[in-house]
Design a protein that fits this description.
The chain has 88 residues and is an all-alpha fold. Helices cover 50% and strands 0% of the residues.
């Protein structure tokens, strides 16, 4: 399990996610552990988070908007969302 987690952490670094997010503390956006906890048990979480990362959005965590990340390949987004959800 350590290798896929590391691979996803490297993707988060490469794609600029850590500019606004951290694994276990709030920065500009929520921590990944808080995201995982919020969506625990939500069968539609993967699709919701994929959409949020790709298109951006606001309101789920306050007034600071999450910018769209259209530059991030869909395969990377899927791996990142899976990695984040497994933290819960």
């Amino acid at each position: 399990a350590a290798a896929p987690a590391l691979a996803s952490e490297e993707l988060a670094k490469k794609d600029g996610c850590f500019a606004c997010h951290a694994v276990d503390k709030k920065l500009v956006g929520p921590s990944y552990k808080d995201v995982a906890a919020k969506y625990r048990g939500d069968k539609g979480a993967e699709a919701k988070l994929f959409d949020k990362v790709k298109k951006g959005g606001t309101g789920a965590w306050g007034t600071v908007p999450m910018p769209p990340n259209g530059h991030v390949p869909d395969a990377d987004i899927k791996k990142l969302v899976d990695w984040i959800l497994k933290m819960g």
